[in-house]
Design a protein that fits this description.
355 residues, four-stranded antiparallel sheet, alpha+beta, four-stranded mixed sheet, 14 helices
Length: 355
């Protein structure tokens, strides 16, 4: 992993910040006017959307498809300002990671920490950061809510990374989910429940409307549409015209067994390590106060939720391309598919903290 530390000064306080990324996605450079993928995949709160006939989905009404950028860029919402970064605050330290669905992360240029610090210092970002830290501190000082969550997160991260370090094939969703449940429930002194078999049919159906930013290295957009027994995966060009459509039978009988070559194994291990360095504990702390539930239990739920789209993405890509094994390029596309969902989970913390 690549880690950068720096300070962020706001109206309220100065925070230490840490940016973390896999070595193969170490920086960020926005392709303004060339990409527009963020406007196509994000739905800023408080902004109405317009239906796009080509995509068959709603798109932010501020998006200019010709210029491939926001019509209101200087006054864009807070969520758009911080995209593609997922932000959490733990004990007065800001944790920052970039969503790997964004092609701007596929660069050899190191992250510009000054630019990130300046963005986070702006209003109302500075207020959001302060409120995140307040929620975290309140959770820590509430014994019935906190329940040694930092210790649980440390153990959970270690066990999940150890598990993936031995994996040479997918799927492993059922095992991973049970592992997270056993770790968390055991840490809080409770007998862990048995998780029923994960339904691929339900998981695929839940992918309805999700997108694949092809290998997080282009701004071409792929969309998943599930209609009964058929699943359609469409690829669109820069003008949002459909240029490729693949229809597969909606997987229902189980995840296919997919061997990973050495490069794919290395990539997924890096990605899992990346997940374990993201601010899931901060998000769980915020949700715990909003939902009056223990932090470790919510931590398990939101963390395990990051692995389901990884498995579904592998299944869809393998079925679409008739693969029996996964290489590095396939894994890049699978991670891109997964990232849209995971970023939405992490970005949700900025919405929950306002409740």
């Amino acid at each position: 992993m690549v880690t950068k530390t720096f300070n962020v000064s706001t109206r309220f306080s100065t925070y230490k910040a840490k940016f973390v990324a896999p070595a193969w996605a170490r920086g960020y450079e926005c392709q303004m006017g060339l990409c527009g993928l963020c406007c196509l995949t994000q739905s800023p709160s408080g902004v109405s959307c317009a239906h796009n006939a080509n995509l068959g989905k709603a798109v932010c009404r501020f998006y200019d498809s010709e210029r491939k950028m926001c019509r209101q860029y200087s006054w864009r919402p807070t969520g758009c300002k911080k995209y593609p970064f997922a932000i959490g605050v733990e004990d007065a330290r800001i944790l920052i990671s970039a969503s790997l669905e964004c092609p701007g992360t596929n660069t050899k240029i190191d992250i510009d920490t000054d630019a990130v610090a300046n963005t986070l210092s702006e209003q109302p970002m500075d207020k959001m950061i302060t409120l995140m830290n307040d929620h975290y501190e309140k959770a820590v000082t509430s014994p019935d809510v906190w329940m040694d969550a930092d210790r649980v997160w440390s153990e959970l991260s270690r066990r999940v990374q150890d598990y993936y370090s031995q994996k040479t094939s997918l799927p492993c969703l059922q095992e991973v989910v049970q592992l997270t449940v056993d770790t968390v429930w055991g840490a809080v002194g409770e007998e862990s429940p048995r998780i029923p078999p994960c339904s691929l049919a339900i998981a695929t159906k839940n992918s309805q409307g999700l997108y694949i930013a092809a290998r997080f290295e282009t701004h071409l957009l792929g969309l998943v549409k599930v209609t009964g027994s058929k699943t359609k995966i469409s690829l669109f060009d820069e003008k949002l015209r459909e240029i490729r459509k693949t229809t597969i039978k909606t997987p229902t009988t189980g995840f296919p067994n997919l061997e990973m070559d050495r490069e794919a194994q290395g990539m997924i291990r890096d990605y899992v390590s990346f997940l374990c360095n993201r601010p899931f504990l901060s998000l769980a702390s915020i949700r715990a106060l909003a939902e009056n539930a223990p932090v470790p239990i919510l931590l398990q739920r939101v963390f395990a939720g990051a692995f389901a789209p990884l498995e579904v993405g592998a299944t869809l890509v393998a079925c679409r391309d008739k693969l029996e094994s996964l290489d590095r390029e396939a894994m890049r596309e699978i991670i891109s598919f997964s990232e849209g969902n995971t970023h939405s989970i992490l970005a949700g913390s900025s919405k929950v903290h306002r409740q």
